[in-house]
């Protein structure tokens, strides 16, 4: 059937635009009729190629894009695009699927590799809303009926195009490649030379040759494939679900969502996923933003690659044909957006010029207790251009500003204060308030606005109230207005990214129902930074942090109506409550109700963690708090926990884990270890056994991505914050509330054990060489040990080991805490292995040495005798261990002044070790040390000097001049010389020891400080005052440095 050729430009109702010849060819085959020539001509400078014809009932012009001009026809951009493989957890896009744009975002980053960026570095705002006819069509398409109508027609159109292609001699140009050709690599696995040495390819770089090579040429590793559920019929069969058809022949799926448009090709998987997550993008292409600048259009494209470095052209033909088929199917639908074929008579509508009276629809009274936050308020004024002094060269006022921060930090109160300031400042302006915690409340708020403001048409049946109010607000006759969107925490409420077969028409329109115009301002409050970034059109939200000390003092004075509250009292309370205004308001409510002082209330908080939790869970009344939002701080955070659990379960588990570490400087490595083990266990668990023995070749654990997303999510909700390179801080109260959540679920022991094992894995042996790392990890070790005492149900080896190593760290720093940890380790080992196990007795020996060092000598002697008795009974042939016990006993006796009992033990140990091991063995030298120390303590200085001189010489030769034992022997000999008044002989020994310790151990080490003090004593005895004063200063500086560590 032929149709008459149009005689006017306006007879063409549809414009189809293609950018690539292969796209153009596929669409041309979809035409039912074409008309040669172009009697209408082209404008000067127009280099586009046009084909005129009919597609279905529509007169259509097909354009091979060069440069866009204005058009009155309904415009479709048709062709191929790069798909986002998994825009959300439950959504999987595969090659050949059809993408239809709901809106377009210009990310404009240029060619993007992990280490190659184009010149532009910022993300543009969303490119406006589609025109009404397109919006109406998209609304129809999101219904089950509309979708079914479209999907049923696409295979028919594909068959028609394929028949024409074959008739034209193109047998295979548009055939669908097999499922084996649909390959997705991990986002961070780069398409580069894997084994070639003479090129510039590296872990983050790609040479020009590799860019143009195939995966087969580069030998890209199949081990980095990502398992695709829709492609794997094998998985379906193993899990008991029989595949209904060959996936290689199944029709394309259709997805509706945001399309990202840039000036060059997206070729980085990591950048693809980052942009997709940030803007809710489901596909990437290059022409949409440029076309949209001139003509609002619908993008209908098919996925030919995954927008990563592994892209190739295998799927371009089929994708071009699928897009053309989908476009033709769209045009066959009764609701297809087309232009009228002739001028339409217009009806003049009389609009009143009278300025409408301003509306103020805010559910809260002004808060008389609001204080501070002046910097944030001024920042909001400046960004909106509401300030009298507004002047920001090179930028225009924003139409949207988001406030984000931890629940209870005061975002809603700031927004409320801004509403009343705005009302006073612009008395002819309107103010509206929207509760956005869910779709229903958002819609209700719009309905309230429509009813109270008597928006025309609001009472009609089947009216789209969101669209109605949006257009009403965007009308310039409304004048200036401010719209507050409060509690916009859940991105799924505004930007659900699902296949349109599952999408809720009502829900998907929420994010696009927010009005956008030059005379309106939208202020958003959210706990979720990611939501704030999206709702703020890509502009960074303002972070609302904790109050300053001066603000908390002012707030407490206002809430308590007591100007006598001192800064010290305010600091006492606010420091316990992390300077959070909601917690402070809750505290003052309790203080007033019970007529107690701030100090008494702090005493109640300090009783225990559970006591603090109970007080923070007390409900109370406050101005500016939503009736459906819990007022207690703990309940407020519970809402955030639920959002996190729903949207990112791994992030909630990470939050639970972090609550058992010290709250400051939590290493990212802890989180990586946990996530990796969790993912690995999930991959190889029995629940996933249906994946089969070969599944590890199909799926690789992307721990880095999981960690990045989990930590990013927790930062977005302000539960954690960056504290430096790969370090994170966590609010103390957040830790407390998080652990209480676990306790209520009976999961405390599980996560406490995981945290303990992670720290035990990385905590180093308590040697001097590991002192810096030990110091960094010590707070976390102490934290997990503290929690293990009360939460872990049975003793763990990790607990005992970590307790001992922490004790070793304190012992080497001569700190009393060592005894507590050795005692705990001994108790745990006793429960694990028995009271007389080798390991248990060894730790008891450590404890005895600690008691000696901290002057608990009686207890040390008691332990030493107990160890000696046990070893003689249990291992009578273990001479070395028994001699060690005897020497420990002798040390304790000598320290108590019981030299007569100690001497025979020292001599026995020396004699036995010399006989068994020889005079130069380190253990023999240690035995001599005991005898020499005894002689020194009993005034037998000549004998002590003779023995010490010999051990110093032997120690230097046998153990080395820089061995700690050599330094101790040199120090003892210098002390003997000093007691004899031989300062000239003592000084060089002390100087030599000091220089070696300072060089090897550092100036602030306790042993170095001991040598400094020895030198001070010698200079004092010798009357060398200036040198003594210089040494005194070194001692003070070293001790300060040691204390500060």
From TrEMBL:
Residues 241-250 have a biased composition (Polar residues). The keyword Signal applies. The keyword DNA damage does not apply. It comes from the Eukaryota. One of its GO terms (biological process) is nucleoside metabolic process. Residues 236-258 are annotated as: Disordered. GO terms for molecular function: catalytic activity. SUPFAM superfamilies: P-loop containing nucleoside triphosphate hydrolases (SSF52540), Purine and uridine phosphorylases (SSF53167), TPR-like (SSF48452). Residues 1-30 form the signal peptide. Pfam families: NACHT, TPR_10, TPR_12. InterPro entries: NACHT_NTPase (IPR007111), NLR-like (IPR053137), Nucleoside_phosphorylase_sf (IPR035994), P-loop_NTPase (IPR027417), TPR-like_helical_dom_sf (IPR011990). Residues 400-563 form the NACHT domain. Keywords: Signal. Gene3D superfamilies: Nucleoside phosphorylase domain, P-loop containing nucleotide triphosphate hydrolases, Tetratricopeptide repeat domain. NCBIfam families: FxSxx_TPR (NF040586). This is NACHT domain-containing protein. It comes from Colletotrichum asianum.
